[in-house]
Specification:
Blueprint (H helix, E strand, L loop, with lengths): L1 H7 L4 H5 L5 H24 L1 E12 L5 E11 L4 E11 L5 H14 L7 E5 L4 H4 L5 H9 L1
Parallel strand pairs: 1-4
Antiparallel strand pairs: 1-2, 2-3
């Protein structure tokens, strides 16, 4: 980084030399950024009049299922916000009710009001849209 600084901005090299890049410092800075971005998203979600959620589930290289939730919302000024809301690891099985549990936890964490949710989009996999113990069946049971 200092070599790049020599080329791009040699007058600022002293500023770069004083930045701590230890693991602990980088980790704490990433955590601070995460808290700030989450707080901003929660604030925007609180202003949504309507929102929709798109979700997908996939297995990573370590054979762990990952559920990703995207949220799109519109406020009273018709400003649209679309963000990656969260990514949740699913341990064990990936049946519909397992996915539904993580879906609920993700929305609760971000304080998304279910009453303002007007659309939920999935990838159409059987564990999402089957007839019995699927995601949609669990969702409908909790809305009644």
């Amino acid at each position: 980084m200092l070599q790049v600084c020599d080329v791009l901005c040699p007058d600022k090299k002293n500023n770069f030399q004083t930045v701590s890049l230890s693991r602990k410092t980088v980790t704490s800075r990433i955590e601070a950024i995460d808290k700030n971005l989450t707080s901003q998203l929660e604030s925007k979600i609180g202003q949504f009049k309507f929102c929709s959620v798109a979700m997908g589930e996939s297995t990573d290289i370590n054979d762990t299922a990952q559920l990703v939730l995207f949220i799109r919302g519109v406020d009273e000024n018709f400003e649209i916000t679309e963000e990656l809301a969260c990514m949740r690891s699913i341990k064990g099985t990936t049946k519909g009710y397992d996915i539904f549990r993580e879906f609920q936890e993700g929305l609760l964490t971000l304080k998304v009001p279910r009453t303002n949710t007007c659309n939920i989009t999935t990838d159409g996999a059987p564990n999402m849209t089957g007839k019995n113990l699927d995601f949609l069946g669990s969702l409908i049971k909790t809305r009644i």
